[in-house]
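User: I'm putting together notes for a lab meeting next week and I want to include a structural view of one of the chains we've been expressing. I don't have a solved structure, so I'd like a prediction I can at least talk through. The sequence is below, exactly as it appears in our construct file.
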Amino acid sequence: MTSFVIEADGGSRGNPGPAGYGAVVKDAADGQVLVETAEAIGAQTNNVAEYRGLIAGLQSLLALAGDGAVVEVRMDSKLVIEQMAGRWKIKNEGLRPLALEAGALARRLRVTWQWIPREKNKDADRLANEAMDAAAKGRPWQSSGSAGTGSAGTGSARPGSTGPGSTGPGSTGLGSARTGSAAAGPSGAREFDLPGASDADASSRPAPAPAPLSAVAAQDSLLDLIDSDAVSPGQDVSSVQGTAVSGTAGTGWRAPTTVATSLLLLRHGETPLSVERRFSGLGDPELTPNGIAQAEAAAARLSREPYGIQVVVSSPLKRARATAEIVAARLGLEVIVEEGLREADFGDWEGHTFTEIQRRWPDALAAWLADPSAAPPGGESFGVAARRVQATGDRLVERYEGRTVLAVSHVTPIKMLLQSALLAPLAALYRMHLDLAALSLIEYYADGPAVVKAFNDTSHLR
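Assistant: Thanks for the context. Below is the predicted structure for the 462-residue chain, given as structure tokens.
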């Protein structure tokens, strides 16, 4: 798997004073510079400039390689690295919005954080100074193309017209940059050739396919089909919500350093289609009497301590809304509908059993089971659904920061939120099982990390 390095820096001549940032994206294997970006940002402090450099570096990598890229972020700012790694608290409230923005971007990647001495951060430092020097002369920053060795080697600029992923003056197109799912890169970003890349769009190359699932495993793990007694219940959510695992942390190794935004994920109750083990996407079946009982059991549990739910959001589909309304009534809350929490669209497969689909669409089914970018006929791929769900999750975490939110949804969106929190590839969806009316819990920390605290807990249904 291709991996990357981001080196970022920022400076202020006066602190506060005229400030600027610089960032480079490099290939981790040989140090070739792939993107460099810099900008003057007016009168700011050193720390603000450093955070702006980090954000620009993360945006540039997302524009270049898309979500899920593996990256080591290197900075000579101990403060920024330690705060983003979750080891230091953010005491300066002026930095908190920047830290939240950087954390949201970082959650879309697989990031490790590394402090480096200033002398090993020469490329980013040079870019920040170039931006400040240009601003002092009343000029916009333009790349000098003189990326030094620093901690990595030099890349040569690719000539050509502006292309996908370039967002400002001085940018050059990169044929291998992914588009669509990635955020737009920062203004002034300059991209270089990826090692060995052709002019073809790299996003057109198929990702390695996961090992194929058996028919039984596919039915049990991917679809809206299984009753709550199919497997033994998972860990009790109430035993872990709002607490660090003993001796461990927000990253799995150390104690979280900020108040978490808790996202409790509740799958809806049983429907006629789940009883008959049929694909259930954007179709709108009602809950069965057993499904209503499952929702009431979840409501009874969630109305007790220690949950303290403050917000209830739901998919717009009837089976989720009915489940959410039962819980919300018990809590004395209103249900807020979130369109992005709807189930994936299964297209022509809606209402069919797995066996029927296997007989009528064998090739399409095989492709769908092997590749998250493959869509059912007339439907939505997991890749497309994941972008919608991730955007919704990011909005919820930002809007309800520090609060406990119950999100009532479906098997696919819930798995996608868990997969994203774990920094797992999208193919991990093929290896999860989620029961009807099951609870899962993700806690998001403002410093950056997201922690899965519980998964597929059905103890309230026993």
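A couple of points you could mention at the meeting. The chain has a mean pLDDT of 79. Residues 283 and 345 are 9 Å apart (CA to CA).

User: Perfect, that's what I needed.
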